[in-house]
Amino acid sequence: MTRPALLSPPFGGAFxxxxxLSGFFDxxxxxxxxxWHHLLSLVDAPQVESLHAQILADGAFHALMYAVAVVGLILxxxxxxxxxxxxxxxxxxxxxxxxxxxxxxVDVGLFHxxxxxxxxxxxxxxxxxxxxxxxxxxxxxxxxAAVAVARGAQSPGGAGRGxxxxxxxxxxxxxxxxxxxxxxxxxxMVLLRPGVEVMDTVVAADARLVQIDASGSIAILRLPDGANxxxxxxxxxxxxxxxxxxxxxxxxxxxxxxxx
Length: 260
Hints:
8% strand; alpha+beta; disordered C terminus
């Protein structure tokens, strides 16, 4: 499949729809569910100081994304005949992935770093680092997945590369999400290096031991507020969730039983 053929319908409609879906994902997750920021959180103007104005701006953004999604659906409807042609489904997947990634690149580059009207998180010491992580995971990785799917159509035996590329994208995204630092007061799972005593690590990190397995090599620690989980590597850790390769480690909010 040549490049012009790859960019032919339904790629355009799929790209616009992927762009809109990415905007919806951003707004619903970050503005409403996690409430990490609003669209105009960093705008210093009396007109947008109130929560009412901030939510109104979020609503206007979602309405715009809705309009963009409608345009994408119209374009897809007009090119629906191409979906049944050779490579039509692949162009659809490539377009959605590309549009999804491009939105996040535009969002971080323009709204976060140039206009500085908000960041991914405002309650952290280094918001630009969170912006960069978001840009890589939800901006660059979808674009790389789109390229991989597209190239799979141009090489022998590439029929199965599209699903594989999407699986790699999802795995990379979930892995990167697992690297986020635990929130203040959260429990952190630690795999200790052979020969390291857990209490030595606890004392050195000024942490609290919540639980340890029978082997003494895996422990759940509660770090003091503001502590960086990376420092556990200096105190005998082989793997730390939220601070490097961590498999299926995942933090959870402290439970009443753990806090006792």
